[in-house]
């Protein structure tokens, strides 16, 4: 009973300490050292007087101590991007491999963070570790930034006593995953932006340029050719019902997004459609296989039980179709089937992937073979994205030229006709 009471008191005191630390304010200070050299830095305290006292204790003469201003868009700063987590993973892995204590590593990385929200997260995780929590437990307070897979890998590293090695593996995994995502975004961004500009140009012409030509043709009493009539009617429709088109497009996009979130069947249907697209579908499929192979390889190497890791692996594929296939594999492996057999039953993995997995299982080097599969498909994604960019450039120019050029030609056809009759 006494032990429980003492434990409760310790927990209460730790909670009070953490609450007290959260009330501290960050100050920027400028001071002169013993040589008269100007020094500057940052420090957290309850008030500026305590900062000045601490600087004097360190032998410096404080000049200015100012409270750090809050970010323009709220106290939390910007959102934490996956790239931030990838960079942090590499930093913490490097520091721990170099022998820097974990708490000190977190303090150094947090101090160097420009993202205020992520800095606060790392500071809170550091305080949790100082309070006696394991790293995976401290990270568990932030499941959005550090997902289940990340925490499971860290937990496996802590349990096996090779946390620095696991963190290095996690860092490589995050870097490779973000590289693939960046490649796919790059492949999609260029054509989407060009088509958006083309639609914007066409809209401006229909609203402002075509009506001027239409009025000129009307005043001249010219007979309009069919292409010109189509453009003029489209302009009249746009001027009268632009609001309906705007709401229709916005409503359609909103409806698709909401339906995807609320309906599993619809989301599955969209994912299947995306995977069947001529070129982009192949990139998405190869990307999903690469993520699956690398994620499973990382978890297996870290010592996470296969069945336990499958849920996290399913979420890491980035595809609903492949995610469901992994969950099906999990159920098959749970009842004693080999991984390669379970993989074959899904029908979504190429024969090469299945065969390499089988070789890895038989040789006892499953993680090594999975990493080979991941590297192969990551390279395939890189090549496919480069090829896609090369193919899309002339296609986009044709579409852009067809939309804008066709409209211009349609407007000048009556002028050419009038010139021919004079």
UniProtKB/TrEMBL annotation:
| Ranges where the Type II secretion system protein GspF domain occurs | 88-211, 292-414
- Chief subcellular location equals membrane
Q: How does it sit in the membrane?
A: Multi-pass membrane protein
Keywords, sorted A to Z: Cell inner membrane, Cell membrane, Membrane, Transmembrane, Transmembrane helix, Transport
Q: Which residues cross the membrane?
A: 188-214, 241-259, 395-415
Subcellular compartments: Cell inner membrane
Q: What domain of life does the UniProt record list for this protein's source?
A: Bacteria
Looking up Pfam families in the UniProt record yields: T2SSF (PF00482)
Coiled-coil annotation reads none
The similarity comment for this entry is:
Belongs to the GSP F family.
- What is the protein's given name? Type II secretion system F family protein
* Species, as recorded: Dyella halodurans
